[in-house]
Amino acid sequence: MSERQVPQPRLPARMHAVLLTGHGDVDRLQYRDDVPVPVPGCDELLIRVGAAGVNNTDINLRIGWYSKNGEPGEPRDDAGWTGDRVVLPLIQGADVCGHVVATGSGVAESRIGERVLVDPVLRARPRGAQIRTLYLGSDCHGAFADYVCVPAANAHRVDSPLSDVELASFPCSYSAAENMLTRAAVGHDETVFVTGASGGVGSAAVQLAVRRRARVIAMAGESKAAQVAALGASQVVTRDGDLLAALGKESVDVVIDMVGGRQFPALLEVLRPGGRYAVAGAIAGALVSLDLRTLYLKDLRLLGCTLLEPDVFVNLVRYIEAGEIRPVVARTYPLSAIAVAQRDFLEKRHTGKIVLVP
After folding, report:
1. Where in the chain is the domain with CATH 3.40.50.720?
2. Which stretches does DSSP call E strand in 87-234?
3. Mean per-residue pLDDT over the chain, rounded
4. What pTM does this model have?
């Protein structure tokens, strides 16, 4: 059958989805069964969502954490991850594994039936009069639904024996971790210190740094140390301990940080001269203390990491297909139980990812 002869499947008119209706607590999340199924536009695909992971971004956007003005829960114009206003109601969810069920104009219908992972960074997408990079589930509707539309270029075919739930644990966390390691140019035999190593990004960073044949020291809660060590960390230090006493001054080449907060000065102290600090989160606090003398006298490089380097997601899919990294799924919930899942996520008693199933 030629590409033009592939039949488009018959699709429902309505779907289940979770709508974020405002900034605040989980009562702002509405599970609905009457949301219109989106229609793929030019160069887009429609994906039937098999599973969708939960991320810090989902909670941060819901409570208005990205805003630098006002109090959490208040409506304001800078609560999006890019500092823009969040258009509500919004379907969140950036982690997607699913199957292509329809194509828009400009996309070969032969893509129907592919199982795909979605790169959540939507580059050069129009927004009003501007061309902006958008983030799936934050700047446009995402995967907390039965179906989601994404640019065809962002949907990467994946050939793997892993389940949809397992695959949905990869996109955001592992691409964020690989992006930090790429920006920091982590190489063989370097010593890498990973904070928040029991979380989604942290556990991914441990595995991906080990894949690069780096020596990994990880920071995690004492109850999770054995699980983190099983991912390949050669040493695990507790998050409440004295970091300088545990590691020693100028003992690591690279810090991969998702935590921030009061330990930030110590993270720069443990870096060797010429070391690199890469950050993609601030779960322990966004405002930190920086002694500029430490920064310039040690010739350190501080790297903020959000937008993925061009090859990061392609490489991630390649690692998955080769079996070089493995999923770490803590628990799954039905999409209808998203409030329970997010409360569980915030308790931080798990290692790896929490995943929702429509």
Report:
1. 172-304
2. 97-103, 115-118, 121-127, 130-135, 147-151, 155-157, 191-194, 215-220
3. 93
4. 0.92
- What pLDDT does residue 236 have? 97
Start and end residues for every CATH 3.90.180.10 domain found in the chain: 3-170+329-357
Q: Is the pLDDT of residue 72 over 70?
A: no
Q: Are strands 215-220 and 191-194 parallel, antiparallel or unpaired?
A: parallel
**% of the chain at pLDDT higher than 70:** 92
Phi, psi of 245, deg, nearest 5: -70, -35
Distance CA 19, CA 85 (A): 16
Tokens 């990294």 label which residue? 325
> Which runs of E-coded beta strand occur in the chain?
14-20, 29-36, 44-53, 97-103, 115-118, 121-127, 130-135, 147-151, 155-157, 191-194, 215-220, 235-238, 252-257, 271-279, 301-304, 329-334, 353-357
pLDDT in tens, 254-284: 999 999 999 999 999 999 999 999 999 999 9
Assess contact for 61 and 20: CB atoms under 8 A: yes
CA distance 259 to 147: 33
Fold observed for domain 3-170+329-357? Quinone Oxidoreductase; Chain A, domain 1 (3.90.180)
Helix, coil or strand: residue 144: coil
Q: Average pLDDT for residues 10-14, to the nearest whole number?
A: 94
Q: In 173-214, at which residue ranges do the beta strands (DSSP E only) sit?
A: 191-194
**Cis peptide bond upstream of 89, omega within 30:** yes
Tell me the CATH architecture of domain 172-304: 3-Layer(aba) Sandwich (3.40)
How many other C-beta atoms are found inside a 10 Å radius of the C-beta of residue 266?
17
